[in-house]
Task: structure prediction
Amino acid sequence: MPTKAMPFHQQKQKQVSQGYQSTKHVHQIQSRTSSSKSVKKEQVETTQAMAQPAYKLPAFRERQPEGMQEYQRMASHFGRDLTTLQHELHRMKVATQEQVENIEITREVRERMSVQRRDAPTEIPKGPDFLVGLRSHTVWEKTPVKLLCTVSGYPTPIVKWYKNDAVIDPLSVPGKYKIENKYGVHGLIISRCSVADSGVYSAVAINSQGKVVSRATVCVRRATGPGEISHLPGQVPLLSGIRRSKLEVFLLDSFGVTFGTEGESLTLVANMVVVPDLPNLPPEVMWYRDDTLLKPSRWVEMSVGGGTAKLSLPHLNKDDEGLYTLRIWTKDGTTEHSAYLFVKDAAPTVKGAPGAPMDVTVSDANKDYILVSWKPPNLTSESPITGYFVDRRKSGTSDWVQCNPTPVKVCKFPVQGLTEGASYHFRVRAVNSAGISLPSRMSTGVTAADEESDVQVIKIEGKYDIVVQKEELQGVCVTLTGPPTDVHASEINQTYIVLSWNPPSPRGQAALWYLIEKSLGDSNFWQRLDTGVQVRSPRCPIFDLEDKKAYRFRVISVNKHGPSEPSEPTALLQKADPYGVPSAPGQVLASRNTKTSAFVHWEPPKNPNNLMGYYVDCSVVGSKIWTPCNHRPYKHTRFVVHGLTPGDTYIFRVQAVNAYGLGEESLESAPLFIDAALTAPSAPYGISLLSCDGSSMTVAWKRPKRTGGSRITSYYLDKREVESVNWKEVSSSPATKRVFKVENLTAGLFYEFKVQAANLAGVGLPSEPSRPFACEAWTMPQPGPAYDLSFWEVRDDSLLLQWKAPVYSGASPVTGYIVEMAQKGSPDFVVVNTEAVNRCYLKVTGLETGTSYVFKVYAVNVSGKGKASDVSEAVCAKTLPGTKEIVSGVDEQTGDIFLSFEAPEVSALSEFIWSKSYKDITDSNRVAVSTVGRCSRLTLLKPEKEDLGIYSVAVTEAGGASASHTLTEEELKKMLELSYNIRNPIVPLKTELNYEILEKGHVRFWVQAQKISSAVSYRFIVNDKEVTGAEGHKISHDVSTGIIQMTVEHFTRANEGTYTLQIHDGKAKSQSSLVLIGDVFKVALKEAEFQRKEHIRKQGPHFSEYLTFHVDDDCTVMLVCKLANVKKDTTFHWFKEDEEIILDVSPNPMSGSCALPIPLFSRKDQGIYKAVLGDDRGKDTSVYDISGQVFEEIINAIARIAGSSASDLMMQCTPEGIRLQCYMKYYTEEMKTSWFHKESKIASSEKMRIGGTSEMAWMQICEPTDREKGHYSIEIHDGKNAHTRTFDLSGQAYTEAYAEFQRLKAAAFAEKNRGRVVGGLPDVVTIMEYKTLSLTCTVWGDPKPEVTWFKNEQEVVSDDHNQISFESGKFASLTIKCVTVDDSGKYSINVRNKYGGEFVEITVSVYKQGEEIPEPKLGQTSRTSAAPKPAAPPSKPQTPTPSMKSPTPTPPQSVKSPTPTPKSPTPPRSTKSPTPPRFMRSPTPTKK
Result:
């Protein structure tokens, strides 16, 4: 069909992209641009001229068909040369122009740099002066205006521009203002003036010598007509002026739609080409978020250079979500690129907690008051937000302080009590029933200070500042201020009311604060409010107000001089939410946009109520799970949702948002299948000639690569002769297939063809003209070319190549095909199959992953190999992401055998084409195909051996998704068995028929099925007889557990036999049997009888747990048992070897347990222990034999505790040698204890003695020598582990120990041989006057000791009255003849030799005849030195350390007199005496 005859409805429709990603160029129409366009126009005309034939042959010189081929070749050759020459000429012109411009720019840069480096000439300083001042202008709206002035002075003045005394910042409104400075002429260009640009503009010139000002008025008038059209939503502000640039910038790869998560970092990158690329002159770049110009900060980092422009967001927050636009100034204007950034919530610290709020802003700052506002987060599955917490932080600190004790429900909060002059940051956290969200991004810093100051600063010539109070300007001095004015409510909601007022004027110089009073209703009873802090700002939030009550308020000013009069009261004010949440948006419409996005549009809510924006949610149809599409309120009513899954169907809903929260959701949109929007298809390609008979040609072509989202319905084929320019349609009706036979052709001519595809969106672009085909009849015997080569099942190392048989088969039928392949770009083809295959497909293996290949196919017949097919497109051997294979299985419900395939993605046009042996399946009686979403299933209706083979599936319009599966006989057999079991079900059993013995001796027979229904039926058969639930048998089942059971209450010998259970549940059935015969039955019967007896036993008092033992922490062995069914009269007794054990505390059966302690357990405690429990209901006995294995277990348990408590080895020196000892909680020789010396086990001997006490184990090294030096250890084995303690007896430790041993040995020898009194002397002697007293004792010592007697510490000398004798070196006596009262006193004997000695004291009392024998007084019956108590056994220290010193041995206790003696007036023996006390050692004899 010729292009010029295309109907209107079939023409290509222009697709307007609804996406957020776009690239556009803004151009200014200037003379340079016009010139450029004229050049382009000439180029277009040249190109069109090139497309027409340069020369048309006259009719008489036309070639004949036989010479037409050569003529065509020559014409094509020279035509290509002419085209190449023209393109080369144009390229040289453009390159020359660019070089000239580059030279000009380079020269200008060098001149500027040389001017900067040139030394400034010495000039006389001069103040700035306007040679030409500003001139006032009156202009029409939307026209530019230029203000110019000329300034002189030295140093060169700096000129700043002001509008209405406010500094003009060109970056604040991009494209609005442009400031120029050329050779002292300064200019301000205002682009596209609006009425708002009217005002007084001034240029201020300043240098070190002074300052001058020039002013001018600009008046902008508006012409009658419609107002200015605002820019589209989501776009950056339109430029009203172009910044000239000498650079040309072309954007290449730019950032696309991006997804991030809070807390992550992200960089947007745009690559560009800059001409010329000068390192010192990068292009001017601006970044926008939505309509806000971004500036570098802690949250935003920008860079440009090296051919890239980057925007880095180091810490993402939802505040960063929005449409990002990159704008770059170029020679012709600007070039722009935009894409959306989505930022989702970070994972909450508590599951179900809401997302963080965003866009925290501060406003209305005063001395101690700031209003904080924010936007609420989106909620989908989380519970509703109940409120917000506001936190503050002083700048320079890291501590956050919570401002509100209870959550505030509205998205704004007045913060009071701030420090004047301090700078603060704020953040917000959301609260719901699950927990608290993460904090929002903190706000920018804000200073707590008055917006308006009462101080005015006047500058004089830039050098001096004069500070003047407003009160001084007014000429009034105020002490007591007036009342505030205009008291009103600036914020009212259900939580609080913010009162605002104007300060008194004049206010005075003294510090000012305010008091607030309230009155309920119209009453005049005023009550002062307790604000908690001093109110110093003309703002104050009031929280504690009752609901549904109206109040009036008034304010009083206070300073140091006193309070003012109250202000005028406000009108009645009441807490209330004036707006509430917005209503639900209107109808939501969704339409296709791209394969992963959708365009959503909705109607605004009827009641917006100060709308902040909208949240859009989506859900896959059938999932009932809603996902947020945007995470920051979007201001407009149309939105592009990105990140959707191709091939899924979604529904959408919208919520409106304001300061009070999220409104109701809108109604859901209609379901939308995600696929690209409908467009006209792309051009077909690959036109090839399949056959020619001299008057017709059969041509084929490949389908367009892009179908446009709609099925291709037809193809339009045009033709033309090679010499002709005009195209003619082949047929009046379009083709529906990609093979078409073109009739009515002239033999010998060359023809070209082109094809257009059409779908619902229209007719696409035409294909490139085919190569010229000669209309000559094919007569060769070989077949023609195969065609339509396609690739399926592309994997990392293999692919499936398919083709169609040639239309022209040659002189004989096609017998096979040969395939050749080559790597992309290589001319060397290799044969894939050495033997021809007789099918139109081939599995190619052994490919290299990631390598691209091309193929061509030859058809073969008897005459040989025919023409080659066109070379295929290149295909890369790589598995597509998400590719899955065909899965075989059996349906669990129906038992059908199936093959299933899931495509990674599908479109609305996708079809699943199943084939067997790569041939379409035509027999619908054997298979059935069903498709749902991305899954397709091929079900084998009558699976047999005929169904074995290769099954494949290909998905159209899905990027080549395909797979194959070989169904083998073994696999089919397994699936048939499984299918049979599903279609002929059995009741699956978890357990077969089993039995268990219950208490009372009952026997339970049971089976557990995996699942049974309430309609299940069953029967028990015993010895071929059905058993019913009669007396003695209980039969039941439980549907929830699947248990079927029968209980036999009286299990006797008659119950021996075979038990069978038959189950029927719907169509399913099952059977299980149990044989109880012979020994198996005897075991069951014995256990039943035992349980019956046990039941009888438990009717009276009995042991619920029989005797066992445990060892306490102090190593006391406890025999314990637990009792049951006891009462007060129940008795309990312990026995050992049938002898009752009587305890200090009788056992208490009512406690439920009894214990028999066995302290210091040893071998003597072995025996049979018995516990007897009884009362009038019966008796129960528990016997425990402590011997053999039980004894070993007890000893091991004791060793386990004792070993854990063992101290480190300590050294003790004795007269016999060196002793190593280990203290522990308890030690007995039955414990498995081993001593080691240098890893050699020590056996007890005369040299090495091993022993112990109840508190320690020791090893004595007798008479140690150097051989006994070394490492010693003790191991205490508890049956499982060994507890080891060590001591290193070597080096200094051994030296000191050996010295101490020698000392103790010598001391022991001295103690053994010293002089001493063996016995015979009483402690007290009472005697009557004039009788003879004989004090006689036996002494011992080696060598023979010396004996000395003393009286009252004075030595007694032998005479007639006092006779002293010492016989045989053993017997010493003192005889006092005819005693008198003067002989009363304290006598002592000193026995001593060279090793020492001792004193023994005797008290002698003499009384007169007739007097009563005196009774010994307290202290008179005791010796002067009482005998020391025996040393207590050492206890285990908390942290034992080796002892190097030997304790002093305890002397033996002296023998006391068996009979008391008469009372004596001698002072008590406890009186101090210079004589050493008895038992005191004396190293040397006392000299006489």
